[in-house]
Amino acid sequence: MITFISNSPETTAKFGERLAKKLKPGDILCLTGDLGTGKTTFVKGLAKGLKVDQAKVSSPTFVVMNCYDGKLPLYHFDLYRLEDIKEMGAIGYDEFLYGEGIAVIEWAERLKELMPKEYLQIQLEHQGPNERVIKLNAIGKRYETLIN
Ligand SMILES: Nc1ncnc2c1ncn2[C@@H]1O[C@H](COP(=O)(O)OP(=O)(O)OP(=O)(O)O)[C@@H](O)[C@H]1O
Ligand SMILES: [Mg+2]
Predict the structure, then answer these.
(1) How far apart are CA 75 and CA 70, in angstroms?
(2) Are residues 90 and 72 in contact, defined by beta-carbon separation less than 8 angstroms?
(3) Pocket test for ligand 1, best of 5, 41, 81 (most atoms within 8 A of CB)
């Protein structure tokens, strides 16, 4: 596990941007953390790193997933409003999760039994008004290589 502190939204976004450059098609990032810890801020940076038009990135409020076109397709899930895991099947989530793009999932813990076998877990925690603890945990070989 790698832990670091972000002391501004910009730092959190920059972290996403830098990580984007190391990602490969099919990579899955699972974000966890309370409301307002910076998950979407991180995704905005990630999108920038993948050359996605920034203005397009916001949390998918009424849908479970947004897809952005960049250097690689970016599939942005936000499961906050997911009421039933069956909704995931209805949108054909596995095609996105196990496809040729990058999948990033806010509130990933709500995937429950659909949680992938391997992924990079990114846990964000409040530490102060502008401070967040960001913890990276590699689940599976690919992600161990990635965080190393
Ligand atoms: N170090 C930091 N990193 C990220 N965001 C920060 C930081 N410090 C303050 N903030 C603020 O916290 C808020 C984070 O909002 P953001 O939408 O990214 O959170 P979220 O985790 O996606 O929330 P939600 O669960 O509602 O989707 C923003 O208003 C941002 O300006
Ligand atoms: Mg969000």
Answers:
(1) 10
(2) no
(3) 41
pLDDT in tens, the chain (148 residues): 999 999 999 999 999 999 999 999 999 999 999 999 999 999 999 999 999 987 778 766 667 899 999 999 999 999 999 999 999 999 999 999 999 999 999 999 999 999 999 999 999 999 999 999 999 999 999 999 999 9
CB-count exposure of residue 83 (10 Å: 0-12, 13-18, 19+): exposed
Correct CATH for 2-147 of 3.30.70.930, 3.40.50.300, 3.40.50.2300, 3.30.450.40: 3.40.50.300
Counting ligands in written order, the one closest to the CA of 126 is 1
Q: Whose C-alpha lies nearest to ligand 1, atom 12?
A: 36
What is the model's pTM? 0.96
